[in-house]
Specification:
There is one protein chain. Helix content is 76%, strand content 0%. It is mainly α. The longest helix is centred in the middle third of the chain and has 40 residues, at 32-71.
Amino acid sequence: MTRARSGPAHRRRHKKVLKRAKGFVGGRGRLYKVARETLLRAGNYAYRDRRVRKRDMRRLWIIRINAACRLRGLPYNRFINGLKRANIALNRKTLSELAIHDPEAFDRVVALARSALEAQSAG
């Protein structure tokens, strides 16, 4: 008996892969074998980059906070140290959003951090 290769499961599996590869350029979107390899690689990149995105966002928030702090005469590392000494538990995402959208509130936070640093150096 010959081996069946064009059964419903075979066709469904191919259609599922080609549907996911829709929009890919050239054979990557049309040929099953190439599309499957491309999707495997794309899945690996997606898995890796979901973690990389978190790192990139944190770096962006730190850059924004540093720029906003330096405009107010305080470098980032001293600002964060002042926040810790003042027991202010705002994360970097929130601080970045404050610096962009509510500069007055960010000024107050910087003032609190600065006063905590001065109290620490005085005492």
